[in-house]
């Protein structure tokens, strides 16, 4: 592959320098393998590793002259061996005496006709004198051609071969980015590196990363799925750095679909959009999913124009979101190659992840030595979370750890138990700092300036203002991170370093009813309802579980929310989501008793059903046997009216309507639509036409909602050929109207591409232990 044009030379003067000694022997060997594949285009086999105390790993194959023979112009075709020699010491010079074993092995390989050429790659320096002596010894062993390439050559190769960096992205964090990026991209790269610095240092190129990079390159889109702590965000951020380097993309870390569309510039095709937790951070947030459905045509247009989009989501959140995503607007999500489960990690990737986190953590050398015999078992633990592996490398999380096989496997398998013990063992000031950060929601602003409620939290936990300030600094890097929260550029402060740390702290707080009551009193209702759970069962993503004794307090908060959100659709969604997803039957019964008119009010829902919340709440009340017969009747009357007049087909496929409507009611409603919609469709088109504003949207996009509803009806009628034919006639009539409007707006458009009737329905190994040099400084 040809490198990006502006990557042909380093941007800054001087030779680049990457901290290759920090990679570890196995990662350095992988880097050498990437050089073979990506720079020299050689196919190779791997020799089994010896465990002789050296830093060796070897590849062999049949040399074929590469198209870009940097440093290898004279290597003849034929059998060759590449030997890797890694040292953990910085600024070390390789001497012939360190290769005594290799000279003997080289002669044996020559005798087996496996080695005509011998290429030595090392991260150490090789002086002219040492290089000449090493070549002479190899030639004396029978090698026909000997080539020695040291750390300087490897650094130069990294700087001039972007494709190599794509598959070894750790190098972005090992050197001066000005050696790689031009001035335009350098600032963005530095900002990304600030976010990624610790993650890149320990990053492992997994199969999930390779497939994600391939999906972005080929399709311009990828959705990364996985449980909390499996590394979705790190892969996404690393892809952002790669996109900046490989494709010259300007990167945008957007918060949601609306922000993506707002920042999309059709005149700047090379844009990379990275959206973490696209459908909700710890639970499904319907308004985010609806934004994706509403904006997906513009997003797909951006991708077709050259933009690249990476989304991440917890797997259980995506499962909740998927029913509300319009299939017609998300064709890429139906292609398996762009939806990637990042949690599937083979054994060798797990071990490399664990090695990196412990090697680059802050554990003392003696602790690392004690861990070494048990790390293979720890890496085989199910499930395996890279985030938990990171904690194993940090002293702050391992005070209670037993340094034996059972202790390490328990730590990996039961992270929440160890996390609870860790929080319990913190000093009062540290507990207070975490509690204030949790209470603040997204970010505890800096500088620290406590209000009366925050002082109350500090008093109850035994913290002091000065002590909390020191604790915040102490906890930064392990439990907390400091900087701008997502989507904010004017606010700075502290937030939890990872969502699982925040959720674990919430579980720790839930044991103290007095503290929960403080949180319920100390925040606005929006923050409270977004972060609590009144469901007595297990609920993924729960932050703070409220005990039944405090249900009346939450009902009071809901009453305030109801009063303040009468005309605010987005704010209404917060408390609707809470009622629909995070309330037990007992809580709903108490709420219905205190607010009997609320349920009746919700029966006045509007179109379109795929974006309104009230039916979800009504369905939850029905599940709890709290929906009164009179309200059930109003629901049926309302949906019947919308099904024909809008027309709205959401009731045919949305999950809540399988609860709200009986099978008989569904059949009766389908029959009414079949009978009445065809004769009323001209009136429907007139209503849609009166509301169309050519200044706000393209007609094809404007009518896409109607198009989607009609296709949903056609799918619902698939067993009734007459009804399907009738719906298809209606669809053609709508497409004729869209074509007419488009032609009036732009008569020069090609008529062939606008003819009605041509619309398409929506598209549905190693003998040597990787941990061998773990305890070497």
The total beta strand count reads 15
Side-by-side strand order of the widest sheet = 1-2-3-4-5
By secondary-structure content and strand pairing, the structural class works out as alpha/beta
Tell me roughly what share of residues is in helical segments.
40-55%
Q: Return the domain count.
A: 5
**What is the architecture of the largest domain at the second tier of CATH?**
3-Layer(aba) Sandwich
- Mind telling me the CATH class of the largest domain? Alpha Beta
The end-to-end span amounts to 38 Å
Task: Please provide a written account of the structure.
Residues 750-777 are annotated as: Disordered. Residues 203-359 form the Novel STAND NTPase domain. This is Novel STAND NTPase 3 domain-containing protein. The chain is of the alpha/beta class and 777 residues long. It folds into 5 domains: 5-171, Restriction Endonuclease; 181-341, P-loop containing nucleotide triphosphate hydrolases (Rossmann fold, 3-Layer(aba) Sandwich), CATH 3.40.50.300; 347-423, no CATH class; 426-509, Orthogonal Bundle (Arc Repressor Mutant, subunit A), CATH 1.10.10; 682-754. Helices cover 51% and strands 9% of the residues. The chain has 34 helices and 15 strands. It has a 5-stranded mixed sheet with strand order 1-2-3-4-5, with helices on both faces. It has a 5-stranded parallel sheet with strand order 7-8-9-6-10, sandwiched between helices. Strands 11-13-12 form a 3-stranded antiparallel sheet. Helix 10 links the parallel strand 8 and strand 9 (308-314).
